[in-house]
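Lab meeting notes turned into a lecture example. A postdoc, R.K., suggested we walk through two folding results consecutively so the class can see how the record format repeats. The first protein's sequence and structure tokens come next.
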Amino acid sequence: MSGIAERLTAVVGEEQVVTDPQIMEGYSHDEAEWAPYGRPAAVVRPRDTADVSATVALCAELGVPVVARGAGTGLSGAANAVDGWVVVSFERMNRVLEVDLVQQTATVQPGVVNDDLRERVARDGLWYPPDPASAPWSTIGGNVATNAGGLCCVKYGVTRDYVLGMEAVMGSGEVVRLGRVTAKGVTGYDLCGLMVGSEGTLGMVTEVTLRMRPLRTGVEHTVVGYFGSLTDAGRAVAAVSAAGVVPSAMELIDRFCLQAVDAWKNMGLSAEGEVLLLARSDQPGAAGEEEAERILSCFRDEGAVYAVRSTDQEEAEALFEARRLAYPALERLGPLLTEDMCVPKAKLPEMLGRIEAAAERFDTRIGNIAHAGDGNLHPLFIVPAGDEAAKKRAQEAFEVIVDEALALGGTVTGEHGVGLLKMRGAAREMGPDVVRMHHAVKNALDPRGIFNPGKVFAWPVCALRPPAGGGRSRTRTGQMPNGAA
């Protein structure tokens, strides 16, 4: 046992500290393909905030970096360990602490699984909208760290829009309360909002108070459209937005992804066209009927080869399930690297065309899924296992697509986070003055530099090594990555 592990055992207890190399391997990285990672000195599985505080205080004293981990479903490498670091896994802090029906809030520990929270509050007639594709596995703490999105976010917003307050452990182990539990509050800087999306670089969140919405009870109206090309589908999305319609979901999945789902689940979805658009309206009654008809009209006006309103709820649910299954279906074909850029909706057709051009230029197979309604694209790079030349081409295409998104006024990440994979693009997007502002905030809140250094923006990077075998093994059968949204 290393010296740091012995010290940790003394302050939090032997049952909370893991040092077995084989067990620690499963905690050492998230699902980001090709993101480097190292071997931690120890994994701490805290029972409560006091354990987290004691761990951070000791690491601050010794100058040992710490990285927070939820379910490990991230796609940027933000939760990856480095040799000699301490990983703090929040799997045991998984309780819903309170559901307040008057305030319509829920207070939870970070290890609560997204879908478990949604199921729990539904019993009280409440709904938590952020729904990443990994919702059956990803945790609220991880969702907060990456400001996760999901299918509903085109209408209902992302994680940050629902975080009211939090408890967090900061740079010397001190425990602070940020934000509020009231419906309104403008006291001081929004330090709570600053923590959301910080990817573990500023502190460790140990409790979160989330805003809920009333549970939706009506029937959603689903519109299905097949298109002959990605750009045609992109124009249809732009037309829906220009018509003033805000669907409750609008998802894109191309034929290559549909074929992968069909090969896995035999759903028969890939025969109608090159690209499938799925849209939903959750407006009640006649308003929902009218909104669905307007979406359908936009699809047809923009050249859909087949477009229809689905009248079968089971069929509609199966189509959206196919969208969620696209990532694991492609992952069965080989190592899979996923992009996550967001562009203005008017630029969506052009961005989809540029992705196709990059695939041709670099001779790289790229599948496409997207939260098309808010311009959030997820190109998926499929590389044959062990083909180093193909891997290099895919990585080059990845960087070119990042630059293309920025050229169109977009951002390098819509929901997966920067982590290790997007630091070059993030630095270019922010510019040197804004990067300096990030450094200033980091230095102020983490003066000892122990929280996840070397991630998100340029910072001294510790000894990382490439993942063994060039791929990822899942810690749970069928588990989907956090950002596969």
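The second example is placed directly after the first for contrast:
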Amino acid sequence: MTGLRRVLVANRGEIAVRIIRACHAADIEAVAVYSDADEHAQWVQMADDAVHIGRSAAQKSYLDPDALLKAARSTDVDAVHPGYGFLSENAAFARAIDEADLVFIGPPPAVLEQMGDKAAARRAAEAAGVPVVPGSGPITDPADAPRAALELGFPLLLKAAAGGGGRGIRTVRDVEELLDVLPGAQAEARSAFRDATIYLERAVPNARHVEVQLLADELGKVVHLFERDCSVQRRAETPRGGARAGLRETTRQTITSAAVRLAEHVGYRNAGTVEFLVDSDENFYFIEMNARVQVEHPITEAITGVDVVAEQLRIAGGAPLALDQDSIECRGVAIELRINAEDPARAFTPTPGDVTALHLPGGPGVRVDTGISQGDRISPFYDSLIAKLICWGTDRQQAYARARQALAEFHVEGVASTVALHRRLTSNAELADGPVHTMWLEKVLADD
């Protein structure tokens, strides 16, 4: 295939809007899908065509591969973009798309299988000469967890073996705490990924969470788009990191080269992100690879000027990467803040409901990605995201100043939101001066 003509967007919310806009900018038709809850949603109205795929519950719609495949076949598309979340890293879904003679806009199914299995991904990283955090193999029987934990030593991170995005992660400091949190972690992993398998990973003290954005074409050419610092996050929430990460230049070159080397080793294609932990001495360790477009991709777009989703479409259409590593420059600093319909005062409980008023900020260096308009409803069936606020500046101080101004303008009524929390956090001098480690936000929230 030398180009895409019509793409099914197998997702919802802001990422569906983002993909549809990228399709239209490339003169590609976009087909939306929607559940009962999303019949009148923004992305449905934007698309060239739209298909109802089922009931409101995600398992009956956006997580139903048969419904999505049927929608693709019935609308004469030649490709499927899965976005992030839902089935975006599901190898069986990607394989079914391939078998239907359609293009899956993401990596090959075999790569999804390898990178989706945390143990296999660790082995691949080791084979590629990329350092990994000491950890266990996959654990399915809870009775095996204490022995594995004692062999590794505490403190440990308990993680879902079949997924990422912060789902199922727990910090444990002794066997008693491990046994206490294990059932909940496995239940969350089973719900999010249909797989309750977990594994244990040694905690890295005062670590920072740094990830490297990659693009890879069908000819095997891989480039990196520099790094993002995602140390400040509550589970999958925000503030969602900034670029650049404040690393020494030698560390930056080494960590980005390691990410490229891993992608080349596994035969990666399309967009992906390699995640690392970086300790206080700037030793770094591979933790996982997200084989899809990331929630944080606008940060990278802001500092490089590269449209990551447009590149995904070009690669999927068979075009070679027009980007050379030496031509990709990093300019300034960007941060992303996820504005969720959650109540921080009630342990971040989601607050679904009607958005009765919504005023979005603007100005130089300010971008808002959203799938919500005033009058829309935040559904209890899906992620509670209202919008992603991305702010760019020539340096960290300007980026945070613009974020504070944008948050002052950001106004939402009808549901509780995280706007006020972000106002407070972006005014924190320690964060604004940065960088901070992964436990910084937890400490700040605990002190409230």
